[in-house]
Design a protein that fits this description.
The protein folds into two domains: 35 residues, no CATH class; 90 residues, Cytochrome Bc1 Complex, Chain D, domain 2. It is 28% helix and 8% strand. The chain has six helices and six strands, in the order αββαββααββαα. The chain starts with a helix and ends with a helix.
Length: 170
């Protein structure tokens, strides 16, 4: 490969070295007939290979999540529910915790209350009502609030923790 075949013009007219030719243009040897001889572009390993999963299982330290000390790992907790509601899913953008009316009903004192529903009737705000409202936001809407709540795909354990958090707001 000669120098002229390694340089390719760009749309702006300025010649540029293609990515594959760059190492050859600056780091080459002269071949038997005067041609450029590029080094092998195949990268060579410079360190030891990564350990296998089996090796990690034997040598890696075991870390056990213990939560905040109040709740065993995997159990719903109000602290986790507060984190999910405020930091992960942004529930607090529409649901206040101090009684202020926002886009959605306030969570202050709502758990266990009887709420009038759009279209008539009422419902007790309990675990099942909250779970259904998160999975299917327009199933039973509190009167006076339109359905602007998105379906976010929370897992059952996440919903359980949010329910525990809402219970603390009574």
């Amino acid at each position: 490969m000669g120098l002229f075949t390694a340089v390719k013009p760009t749309l702006g007219g300025e010649p540029r070295l293609p990515d594959v030719a760059a190492p050859c243009a600056f780091d080459h040897e002269i071949g038997e007939h005067g041609e450029n001889v590029c080094p092998d572009p195949t990268p060579q390993p410079t360190s030891t290979p990564a350990p296998t999963i089996a090796a990690l299982a034997i040598t890696a330290p075991v870390v056990v999540a213990t939560g905040n000390g109040d709740t065993p790992p995997g159990e719903p907790s109000a602290a986790e529910g507060e984190r999910l509601a405020n930091e992960v899913y942004g529930c607090n953008a529409c649901h206040s915790t101090d009684g202020t009316v926002l886009v959605g009903p306030s969570w202050k004192g709502i758990y266990g209350s009887q709420e009038a529903l759009e279209g008539g009737g009422s419902a007790t705000v309990d675990d099942e009502y909250i779970r259904e409202s998160i999975h299917i936001p327009d199933a039973k809407m509190v009167e006076g609030f339109g359905n602007l709540m998105p379906v976010l795909g929370l897992t059952d354990p996440e919903i359980d923790s949010i329910i525990e958090y809402i219970k603390t707001l009574n």
